[in-house]
Task: inverse folding
């Protein structure tokens, strides 16, 4: 039977990959509709380079439509309500129904959820905030730089650690490192705690090698912009001259009110198929929650959103065609950790391993930084750059022993 429709909600990594892979797999007569309110796509990993002036905004974003496969319909609209039982979505452009529904609405930045954050912090998780940080660095002449994690959870577990390392590199490049101190505050017991103690110790080692002071188990109560201080939950105060902080995150309101979410607002899914309790209703990426064998949640990261989207596309195509889908989501993920000076470390492993995830951290090297540049080009380069970058990433991934699918 043809003439069916799949509606994908959200145009981030998970939504883009799901829509494009669905278009490739389902019957040409079936509709694939992507609903997204933003007309332009920003590559989130490159915000760290924008933060230190290594990229301009126009270099890390593209019209969303230009990244969609031919035949994917783009509905530029806001998602206002989801009825998972009826597989029906209310948008600012009207109501749309689907034979299969994919929720890929991501995690929402919530700067107002932390007192003082908006007036105190440079939000390097947004393009505006990252660009503002680059401008602030231009006039910075030394002092105390603080990188802070406002609350848990947040997407891209390595981001605050990369931010501290890249700020260190930029201050060295400007000849200001000896006149500066860098501190990193986080409520986490260690960097990237889901990845295990060995990974955390390795990242702490990267920080210590650069003289960056690490303050784990330091939950923040509020920021006080008038005195340029952050106040920890135990009352301790820490001053700053430049503050780059991860904002609080939350699930979008439309996801929280959909009937799909748990008490925390995230959408639980089957860890293999990414299906919700509703037939042919799936969720992928940062809006989801998957509990690992050790009781901790799967981190919110683009690599997982990408892999999950491929699984969901196969699941839906199989359901439409009356065939069984191949193996489901396997929990394999990877990320780069930029360390500055044109170098990066690289972590990859299986988060579904028991009793704890098994990861391998490759030593900081120029080749891994080059891999991240290739990744950027594969997403937002011109058509020739994309083809070359994807070929290079796949070849490099095979040599390094990890999986890359773009």
Result:
């Amino acid at each position: 039977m043809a003439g069916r429709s799949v509606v994908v909600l959200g145009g981030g990594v998970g939504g883009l990959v799901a829509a494009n892979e669905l278009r490739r797999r389902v019957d040409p007569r079936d509709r694939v509709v992507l609903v997204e309110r933003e007309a332009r796509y920003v590559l989130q990993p490159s915000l760290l380079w924008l933060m230190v002036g290594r990229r301009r905004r126009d270099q890390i974003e593209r019209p969303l439509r230009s990244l969609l496969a031919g035949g994917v319909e783009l509905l530029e609209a806001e998602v206002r309500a989801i009825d998972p039982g009826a597989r029906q979505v209310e948008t600012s452009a009207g109501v749309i129904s689907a034979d299969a529904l994919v929720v890929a609405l991501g995690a929402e930045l919530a700067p107002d959820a932390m007192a003082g954050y908006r007036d105190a912090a440079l939000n390097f998780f947004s393009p505006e905030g990252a660009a503002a940080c680059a401008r602030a660095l231009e006039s910075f002449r030394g002092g105390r730089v603080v990188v802070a994690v406002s609350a848990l959870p947040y997407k891209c577990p390595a981001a605050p650690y990369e931010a501290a390392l890249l700020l260190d590199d930029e201050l060295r490049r400007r000849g200001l490192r000896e006149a500066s101190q860098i501190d990193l505050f986080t409520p986490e017991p260690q960097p990237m705690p889901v990845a295990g103690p060995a990974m955390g110790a390795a990242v702490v080692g990267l920080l210590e090698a650069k003289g960056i002071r690490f303050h784990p188990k330091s939950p923040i109560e509020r920021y006080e912009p008038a005195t340029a201080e952050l106040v920890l939950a135990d009352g301790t105060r820490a001053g700053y001259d430049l503050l780059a902080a991860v904002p609080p995150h939350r699930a979008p309101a439309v996801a929280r009110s959909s009937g799909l979410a748990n008490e925390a607002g995230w959408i639980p899914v089957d860890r293999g198929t990414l299906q919700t309790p509703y037939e042919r209703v799936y969720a992928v990426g940062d809006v989801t929650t998957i509990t690992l064998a050790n009781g901790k949640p799967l981190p919110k990261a683009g690599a997982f959103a990408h892999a999950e989207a491929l699984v969901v596309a196969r699941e839906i195509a199989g359901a439409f065609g009356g065939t069984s889908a191949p193996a489901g989501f396997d929990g394999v993920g990877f990320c780069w950790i930029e360390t500055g000076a044109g170098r990066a470390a690289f972590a990859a492993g299986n988060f579904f391993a028991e009793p704890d995830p098994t990861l391998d951290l490759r030593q900081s090297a120029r080749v891994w930084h080059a891999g991240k540049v290739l990744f950027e080009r594969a997403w937002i380069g011109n058509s020739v750059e994309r083809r070359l970058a994807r070929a290079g990433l796949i070849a490099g991934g095979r040599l390094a022993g990890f999986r890359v699918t773009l």
